[in-house]
Every structure is written in structure tokens, then in C-alpha cells.
Amino acid sequence: MIENKKNYEQFDQDMFTPVEMNEQLGERIAGKSLNFWQDAWMRLKKNKAAIISLSIILILVALALFGPMLSARDAYEQNISQAKLPPKVTGLEWAGFDGMATLGGRDIDFYEQKNVEENFWFGTDYLGRDLWSRIWEGTRISLFIGFVAAIIDTLIGVAYGGVSAYFGGRTDNIMQRIVEILTGVPNLILIILFILIFDPGVFTIILAMAITGWIGMSRLVRGQILKLKNQEFVLAARTLGASSSRLIFKHLIPNTLGAIIITLMFTIPSAIFFEAFLSFIGIGLQPPQASLGTLINDGYKELRTFPFLLIIPSVIIVLLMVSFNLLADGLRDAFDPKMRK
Amino acid sequence: MGRYILQRLTYGLITFFLIATFTFFLMDLLPGSPYQNQEKLTESQIQLLNDRYGLNDPLPVRYATYIGNMLQGDLGVSFRTANRPVTELIMERIGPSAQLGLQALVLGTLVGVLLGVVAAIRHNTVIDYGSMFVSVIGISVPSFVFAALLQYYVGVKLQLLPVAFWDSPAHTILPTISLSLGVTAAIARFVRTEMLEVTGQDYVTLAKAKGLTGNAIVWKHMVRNAMIPAITILGPMTAGLLTGTFVIEKIFAVPGLGELFVTSITLNDYSVIMGTTLFFSGLFIIIILLVDLLYGVVDPRIRLGGNN
């Protein structure tokens, strides 16, 4: 005891400051308070794959919008004297962009043979159209189809699922029976039949995909809202006299927004895939319209001699699909960390 | 359970009937003529042909005939292939499609389970990331792109395997691999998630406490339980396989149902389009129904339609 006191006194009293008694101090929140979006963004930023994917998507979107301007060539202008030129980029000859292609077992410089002075970065197709311009034109159309189809699916799905879950009872029963019947329909066949009747075009494809596309979204929204609608905050809002539409649009839907966005992000690549698929079997967009699907289809026909015609659009579509899928995965983890594995 | 099956069967039948009706009226709206060389036919010849195929009857009569014949298993005759009955055309093409689909399913499941299990055991290591990368690629690469590239590099450039047609087992390898890519990816993802889910379960701890080896725990206890929910993705996977067969059979010239469907679309062969559509739809409905029922049988924790 005395030892201790001695030890204590050897320190300078000025080194200590007494702690004040303050109940509230313990409750002080040190970190900045983040809302749902900031929180999700913070988590998303840590996911390298998702951020790289987001950058790739942004770059591809930018190229889809401005790419054709870079080469300053029209995507539809035909020039037979410049047909079927392999890709050539000055400085990238080592990577295969050397304007050479194998024909009959011999490597031939097509630019020399056809007396073409300028370089085509991605080469040209069988009608001499610049593939660089066509690729970005096609990417733009594919992205457009993907985005619009996803948005339509979301609008119908959210409205249908929301109404079904919110009103419940007989309404829900009838609406769910309809969904049950529609789920049995193989959507691909329905899409194909639909396109056969109407003129194949961007909007026919989007509409065809919308017929059954919204079902997944409506199920998700219904499930979420059924879970939410009996929670206290909804009861509180109802007690305060909130109307049905206010409850749905201000309370229920914002709380399911995370799940909706994730599903939306998964819908985009699948819509892009469907368009490419339809164009590949020859009932999608019709020539001369360019989309990634029609370009792949055109390229497939020339595969033996000019593989670049297939490989370049394939690489773009794969990049798009991988990026969207990885970004959607990342968003799922960011919005709902419980689901992270 | 009995009531549930009955209810599901009823819905299946309603769906099928709706598809049949929908297909019929869509076909009626379809542009184009079903006859070859229509320009060379005279007006009266076309009339005769229309009479013969019953195309001059009023719509309701044709609809009634169509539904009546369908119920007797008669899907009409092809307009293009020398009066061959559609049912016969479908029957002779089921073989290659079924073989291709089953081979792809088996290959995809085996590789997928392996990838998924390995990824889960080596969670958050390079192996995990590698196998999940393969899986993302598998989901993202459209099957026809993959098939076209395989055909070019393996078939044309390296000349290791036949480029197309359906003659010997060797001919089936490339189409099977192309079709199985999506299955592999979906199963691998799914198994990995489920494996991580069951890792913390009591029976796994018990198995460890009993002193079982790592392999026995993984394959006897974890994989078996992780695979139960995999039945739920069988439905979407069947749809995926169907989509895949359309293009892959076209690319590799496989004489299957998908190829028949795609060809009949380009040829405006109405009766074949209708017939194959009905066949695919029926198949799809039955598989979805079976998957749901199977799920209840395999996992006793799920009681279908019961009072919970």
C-alpha cells in the first residue's frame, strides 16, 4: 500500500487530467452517419471486380455513343473495293492487328493486295463496311435493348407484384394464379412466335421479351412486400393516416429498391443475350441493322477465312455480359451484406 | 399432397391449353405462304391445296379441328417435307436431342459439382476465385459464341474432332461441351453457396467430432445436403438447355428438335412450328411440375400444400 503510494507520488500531478462524469459522452457516435446509398457505395467500392466491371461498362457505353465518330466512317456505307480487310492498327501489329489473313494456306497482306492506304482498326466486313463503326453501332443497339427491356420488366413487375402483395386476399390469389399459368410458358418459344408475326425490329424484340420477362421481378417484389407490410414502420405510417399509394411508393417500394436494382442488373445481360440469340438464329434484327447478335451471325458465316469478324463482336458481348454479371453480384453484396459469401 | 399434385396438374393443363390456343391464332396471323414456289401456282391450284389442308374453313372450324386432332396426338402434316406427319418428324428427332441434352446435363453436373465443392472447401483462396471466374465466364459467354469458337479452333484449326453432323460418339463431343457450359456454371455457383451454407450445420460438427476424415465429411455429409436445393434450379436449367439446343444443333448440324424448329421457322412450315412448340411446351410444363414434386419428396422438411 505504502509502496504503491510512493510509486504514485513520483509522477508529476500535471500529467493527469480527471475524467468528468458525463453520461452522454459514452453514447457519442464517432463515425459519420451514412444513409443506405452511401453505405452500399462504400461496400461496393471495396469490391474490386465490381468496380472494374463498372469501369468497363462505362467505357463500352462511351464507345457505343462516340466510337463511330473516332473512326469517322459510317457504319452503313458500303464500299466493295475495301471489302473483307482484316484489322490493322499501326503500332499493334504484334497483337494480330497487322492486316494479314490466311487464305489457302498462305498469309496475305490484304491492304497491299487491295491497294488500301488507310487503316481499318477492326477491319471491314463482306460489303466493305467499317467494322469499328458497326461494332459500336451494334453495341449501342444491344445496350439500348438491354436497358429498355430491363426497365419495362421492372415497371410491370414492380406494379404487379406490389399490388398483388399489398392488397392480398382474393386479389393476390387471382393475380398469383395468372402468374402460375404464365410461368409454365417457355418464354423463348413465345418470344420467337411473337417476333414471327410482327416485323422483326428493336421494339418487337423488346415487347416480346416483356411478355414474360416481368414475372421474376413481380415475384421478388411480392415476396419482399409481403415481408415488409406487417412491420411496425408500415403500421405507424398507416396509423398516421397514410394512403395506400403513399404507403406503397414512399415506404414499401423504397425498402425493396435494393433487391429491385439487383434483379434489374441481372436482367440487362439476359436481354442482351436474348437479342443476340434471336439475331443469331436469323429472326432478330434484319440487315443492314447492326447489333452484336447480327454481327456475330455475319461473322460466323465467314469464320474460316476471317475469324476476326466473329471474334471481335464476341469479345465485346462477353465483356458486356461478364461486367454486368459481376457488377450485379457486387451490388447484391453491397446492398445486402448478409447474403455475402 | 394428393390435392397439391392435382392442383398443379390442372394449372399445367390450363397453361398447355392456352399455349395451344395462342400458337394457333398466332400462326393464323403469320405472314408468308406455306407453299413452295407459290408464284408458279395458279389461283385454282392454290385453292385446291388450301382445300386439301383445310385452310379454307372458317377460323372457329379450323380451331376446333386443330384442338380435336391435337388431343388424339395428331399434329397435322408438314407443308414442306412431302406430307410427313408432324408427330413422326418430332419422334425421329427426339433421339439426338435427348442424347445431347442428357450428355450435357451429366457432364455439366459433374464438372459443376466438382468446381463448386473445391471452391467451397478452399473458400477465399486462389482456387475459389479461379473456379468462380470460370463460372462467371460460363454464365456470361453465350452458348453459340462458345460453340462457334470451339468449332473453329478444335474442329477446323486443330482438326481434333469432327466439325459437324451426328454420326459417331466423337461427333457428340463438341456439341455436348458447348451445351454443358451453362449447366456447369450454374451448378458450380449453386453448389458453392450451398456448401458454405451447410458448413456450420450441427451434423457437420458431429461428423467432425466422430473423427471422420475430411473427404468423408465433404462427400457423404455436406455434398448430399448441399445438392438438395439444386433441384430448384433444374427448372430454369431445362429452359436454358432448350435455348441452347436451338443454336447448338444449328451450328453443329445435329438432326434434333431444335434444328427442326429453327428450320421450320425459316421455311414458314406452320404445322411443324405449331407441333414443335406444343411439344416443347408440354415437356417444359411436365419438367417444372416434376421438379416441384421431387423437391417435396427429397427434402421432407418441405411440406407441399400442407397446413403449415
TrEMBL record, chain A:
Which keywords does this Swiss-Prot/TrEMBL entry list?
A: Cell membrane, Membrane, Peptide transport, Protein transport, Transmembrane, Transmembrane helix, Transport
Q: Which residues form the signal peptide?
A: none
Q: State if tRNA-binding is listed as a keyword.
A: no
The answer to whether the entry has keyword rRNA-binding is no
Q: What is this protein called?
A: Oligopeptide ABC transporter permease
Q: Where is the ABC transmembrane type-1 domain?
A: 139-328
Where it sits in the cell: the answer is:
Cell membrane
InterPro entries listed in its UniProt record? BP-dependent_transpt_permease, MetI-like, MetI-like_sf, OppC_N
* Protein family: Belongs to the binding-protein-dependent transport system permease family. OppBC subfamily.
Automatic annotation (TrEMBL), chain B:
Q: Where is the signal peptide?
A: none
> What kind of membrane protein is this, topologically?
Multi-pass membrane protein
Sorted alphabetically, which InterPro entries does this protein's record hold?
BPD_transp_1_N, MetI-like, MetI-like_sf
A Pfam family name for this chain? BPD_transp_1
Q: Domain ABC transmembrane type-1: where?
A: 94-295
Top-rank taxon = Bacteria
- Residue ranges of the TM segments: 9-27, 100-121, 133-153, 173-191, 230-252, 272-295
Localisation per UniProt entry = Cell membrane
In terms of one coarse class, where is the protein primarily found?
membrane
Q: Supply the alphabetized keyword list.
A: Cell membrane, Membrane, Transmembrane, Transmembrane helix, Transport
Q: Which family does it belong to?
A: Belongs to the binding-protein-dependent transport system permease family.
How is this protein named in the record?
Answer: Oligopeptide ABC transporter permease
Organism name: Exiguobacterium aestuarii
